[in-house]
Amino acid sequence: MSAPFEAILLSRPFKFLIGVDEIEIVVHEEAIASQSPALEALMRGKMSESASRVATWVDVGRETFVRFAQFAYTGDYSVPKMIVSCQVPQPEQCEKATEVEKDLWAIEAPPTDDWASVFAARVKDKKKKKGAQLTNRERSRSLQTADYTIFDKSQVYALLQPRSKFADSCDPEIIDGPEENNITEALLSHTLLYILAEKWGIDSLKMLTLFKLHRTLSMLVLDSPKVPHVMELVRHGYAGTPDLETGIDGLRDLLCQYVAANVKIMSEHEAFLALIQDGGTFVRDLWKRVLPRIG
Question: Tell me: the pLDDT tens digits for 148-157?
Fold first, then answer.
């Protein structure tokens, strides 16, 4: 449950030193501490960070922390548009990519009849029913009655800006661009945030990052030149997530599903073969998903 905005605004400032350069970022304590019990203990418990109101996160990059803070304050986070050269979506993928949620702030255009026209019509109708001209006193009473009892529930107001100022930057999007693309950066924006959420037990953020990463991968038309980007994603994902005794971590599961579904294209690239030769938990998890497809 999100903390009330007033509680966030009135909470004490807390400083984070981010990355190897120890970039100072100051946030409201309530916004971050309310995300998980682990963060609550860090910022309000008996740790030295709570007393000094300073925490050092060397293993977190600036961009990742900014997205985390944005999520803590707004419930969502902005992502870079993935720039891909000469991407030609398949019909099914194109259809999925264009399905976006309706903006909560989007409203229909105001109806043509306003309060004035409704009021005039009702007064005119009353005159016809009476069949005679109203006296000044009756007309005054009619005006007062109409003014205070007629409430046009269909009246709408066109908003001048979205209710969320960052809504346009939060949905994953792929655009055509130059040969020098940013596929790895776009994919890791979700992965690194998931790793942070996993470390500090922020389940809601973990699910949001999986949702966005899944959507991004679904929109990406995979071919041989893109395989190294996916392999880099797999390396980071497995390096930053735990090997569970039972089951499999959510990010690892998503990555294995994607690789297994595209194993034919993957198997023709050296980057994939190099990762397979390294062995480890990724090969084990991938084999469990590829085997049913073979059988």
Answer: 567 887 888 8
Instruction: Check: CB of residue 195 under 8 Å from CB of residue 240.
Output: yes
Vertex 100 angle, CA 66 and 72, to 5°: 25
Q: Mark whether 189 and 247 lie in a shared domain.
A: yes
Are 249 and 279 contained in the same domain? Answer: yes
Domain count across the chain: 3
Please check whether residue 23 lies inside any domain of the structure: yes
Strands 23-28 and 13-18: antiparallel
Rg (CA), the chain: 28
Same domain, 89 and 62: no
Structural domain boundaries, residue 121: 115-149
- Residue 229 half-sphere exposure, CB side, CA atoms within 13 Å? 22
Which residue, chain included where needed, has tokens 């966030």?
Answer: 8
For residue 232, how many other CB atoms are within 10 A of its CB? Answer: 17
List, as one string, the DSSP characters of 121-176: HHHHHHHHHHTSPPPHHHHHHHHHHHHHH---TT-----SS-SSTTGGGTS--EEE
10 and 67 assigned to the same domain: yes
pTM score of the predicted model:
0.76
Distance CA 181, CA 169 (A): 18
